[in-house]
Amino acid sequence: MFSAFDSVGVIGTGAMGRGIAQIAAQAGSRVKLLDNQPGMADQARSQVSAQWAKLAEKGKLSGADASALADRISVASSLADLSDCQLVVEAIVENLDIKRALMKDLVAITAPTTVLATNTSSLSITAIAAGSGRESHIVGFHFFNPVPLMKVVEVIPGLKTQPAVVEQLVSYAKCMGHTPVIAQDTPGFIVNHAGRAYGTEALRILGERVADIATIDNILRDQVGFKLGPLELMDLTGLDVSHPVMESVYHQYYQEPRYRPSVITAQRLAGNVLGRKTGSGFYNYVDGAAEKVADAKPPAITELPPVWVSPKAARRQELYQLLKGFNARIETAAAPSAQALILVAPLGFDVTTVAAVERLDPTRTVGIDMLLDDASTRRRVLATNPATRADMRDAAWALFAQDGKPVSIIRDSGGFVTQRVLAHIVNIAADMCQQGICSPSDLDTAVRLGLGYPHGPLALGDLLGPGNVLEVLFNLQTVYGDPRYRPSPWLRRRGALGLSLAQQEI
Ligand code: NAI
Hints:
By secondary structure, the protein is an alpha/beta fold. It has 3 domains: 179 residues, NAD(P)-binding Rossmann-like Domain (Rossmann fold), CATH 3.40.50.720; 98 residues, N-(1-d-carboxylethyl)-l-norvaline Dehydrogenase, domain 2 (Orthogonal Bundle), CATH 1.10.1040.50; 99 residues. 43% of the residues lie in helices and 12% in strands. The strands form 3 sheets. It has an 8-stranded mixed sheet, sandwiched between helices. A 6-stranded mixed sheet has the order 12-11-13-14-15-16, with helices on both faces. Strands 9-10 form a two-stranded antiparallel sheet. β1, α1 and β2 form a beta-alpha-beta unit. α8 packs antiparallel against α16, α16 crosses α18 and α19 crosses α20. The longest helix has 18 residues. The radius of gyration is 26 Å and the shape is elongated. The two termini are 30 Å apart. The mean pLDDT is 97. 1,4-dihydronicotinamide adenine dinucleotide binds next to α1 and α4.
């Protein structure tokens, strides 16, 4: 049985190489560091040793263990020093020609059984291995930053990688204390592919002026439980990193509309408005903290109008319960009275379309997002149409703010903010399963650990109901006529049959 590689080489000792070296030593391997920048490998060795010393100070490691770990790391003076390694991981500059040349050099000096791994995040493993003469032993081993804390690693075989090599790296990742997931050699692998939905859909919503920056972030944090809103997240990562990733995945998939980037970030990148690192991005930063405006206070209204709910509203019974709890005067006739506030709760459709199709008075019609169970959310979202009267909007606002839960008001669009973003996340994930990029369980694991989402995308789809997600997408496609929203066969077939998205076929 495989235990661990005894001797491991790490080439490129920047942010990633250091982390990989640390967990490789912790897995029991002797690790040799190599960098082409003088002094860099020594610096990496000291830094990693200091980490262990710090853990020893905190009592999380004994002093003897910390120095035993440090003794496992040495600095190589040339590539030839790595000739006896059983595994070499490269984390050098992200450049195909340079990585290919390095692989060829490594093939020349190492044993035929040595596994040669690349930590590339955006290049094809097959392309890096091509022409090396040892394609069977070259494999992707894609960690996330910071390596010791991000406990997931993608193992990516190229077209000619031997399955046994993949198995070895899967076992070794476990020795390192990480969770391995296996990905096909496709653009973005799992995490950077599945992660395309969150930001791009939020940028489209922003671009249509459905809601402002803070409102979009507030909604996704409070309704779904994302740690950061999509625009806050881009500010943290920096648009110099996130915009090129969006463009790269889009172009590598030959302009697949689901991944289409936004002119908003292209322009901000050109203007060096990158996020936290430049002091301004979607938010302004003062002493490292984002300047944010608090939610506006709901209007004080002495007498609320009666409320009539469309019979086609999503979660209609739950909505009635909510209204009862607020002591609203609920109308139950087939049509609303002339004074009534009219509530609709569409999935995927905009409030305008619903008012027109159901022949409702648009001036009194307001939408509420009921995709998610109200009790599970920390914010309610209402949407107006272009004809909605201000007094009706304010009445709805005051009504739904009665228990102190924050309320956001947005312009209507196909689907509310949450519906659009979640449906897009689920659909892209479903299509990755359809393409066989990874198993459904690896997909959910990779996204939870790699992106920190509250649920894996497929589990999220199951929670929302695959049929509901399908309905949102069909209706978004009707509203926008954009192939971006076409449901993946994986979602369409499971949604139609009421099956779980995690379900594999025979
Ligand atoms: P970095 O710039 O911090 O470190 C790269 C190191 O490699 C530097 O110390 C440099 O001197 C050295 N180097 C460059 N060319 C070399 C060569 N030909 N031979 C030996 N050493 C060489 O970069 P970072 O962020 O550690 O990234 C390294 C690799 O990991 C890249 O392929 C990157 O795409 C990938 N990656 C980066 C992630 C990140 O968040 N930073 C996440 C996942 C993968």
